[in-house]
Amino acid sequence: MIKNLLYSLFLFQLVFSAFAQVKNEPEVKIIFDSFPLEKSRNINAAVVVRLEDGWHIYWRNPGDSGMPTSFEFILPENVKVSEIKWIVPKIFEFEGYASYGYEDVAVFPFNIYMPENFIQDEITIEVNLKSLICKDVCKPFNQKINGTIRLDEMYIASKADSDLLFSAYTNLPVKNDKLKLYAKNFSDSVLINISSEIIKINKIKNVHFIPYENGIFKNSVVQNFTVSGSELVLTAEFDPFKTKVPDTLNGILVIDLNSEEGNSRLAFEVNQKIE
Asked: With contact defined as beta carbons under 8 Å apart, do 187 and 223 qualify?
């Protein structure tokens, strides 16, 4: 009798846990930034995914696990959107494996473009989002969402939405105009020489190259680097089963600085030929 009761309680806990997990789906929506009344209009917007505690979603290169988050737009006639702008991801580690993504609130900015003399009073943007979300386990996360906005009146975004967009744009990697890079191919790695007339190399606390394409470089939480005078040398190890030998470095270079004002982070887009 007691065994049957304990077994029933165990089954109840399993069912309740599974039910709770299904209910804890992320909240997804499209947000728009403020814009004035104009006949020609570009609007800043973003897909926002609000995740439950402990869960994360993936960057364009997921790393050792997961899958890239992707977006398919369904647009009104004559309306166009930019590609998704990818905020610098966090590096997650699990049992020695590294993956790239976002936790808490993930913001994926994009721009909406409308032609001169666009006559519609409102537009609806539809997005098919496909991804994977992970905590102790992973599960598919596919959502169809839409956002409608009127164009015949000035739009003022809420402070919460405006703050999310502002934070997202300040955390985007920028075009590299501060670093001098030289990349050399060795049998098991690429050595990246970094120097700068603007950034003090001896103030660099950490540096990390995150590739846009998976399967070429080893995904790792820590990459080895050495500093000698005004030059830093970063080692980007190849994946033991790399899919190809690259001729360029394509990705982002994330630099953490120590300064008198405290720690700061810089991120640069990299498209560097490998010698």
From this structure: no
DSSP character for 14? H
Contact 151, 122 (CB under 8 A): yes
| Calpha distance 180→50 (Å, rounded) | 38
Sequence-distant (≥ 6) Cβ neighbours of residue 103 within 8 angstroms: 51, 54, 55, 56, 57, 90
The domain spans of the chain are 26-170, 174-273
Query: What is the pLDDT, as a whole number, of residue 14?
Result: 38
Residue-by-residue DSSP string for 121-186? SEEEEEEEEEEEEESSSEEEEEEEEEEEEESSS-B---HHHHHHHHHHHHTS-EE--S-EEEEEE-
Is this model's pTM higher than 0.85 or not?
Answer: yes
Residue 187 has pLDDT above 70, yes or no: yes
Select the more confidently predicted residue: 23 or 188: 188
CA distance 75 to 47: 15
Query: What amino acid occupies position 134?
Result: C
Q: Which CATH number fits domain 174-273: 1.20.58, 2.40.128, 2.30.29, 2.60.40?
A: 2.60.40
Distance, in Å, from the CA atom of 193 to the CA atom of 8, rounded to the nearest integer, reads 63
Write the pLDDT tens digit of every residue in 57-110: 999 999 998 999 999 999 999 999 999 999 999 999 988 889 999 999 999 999
If one looks up domain 26-170 in CATH, what number appears?
2.60.40.10
Q: Which amino acid is at 167?
A: S
* Kind and range of the H or E run holding 262: strand 262-273
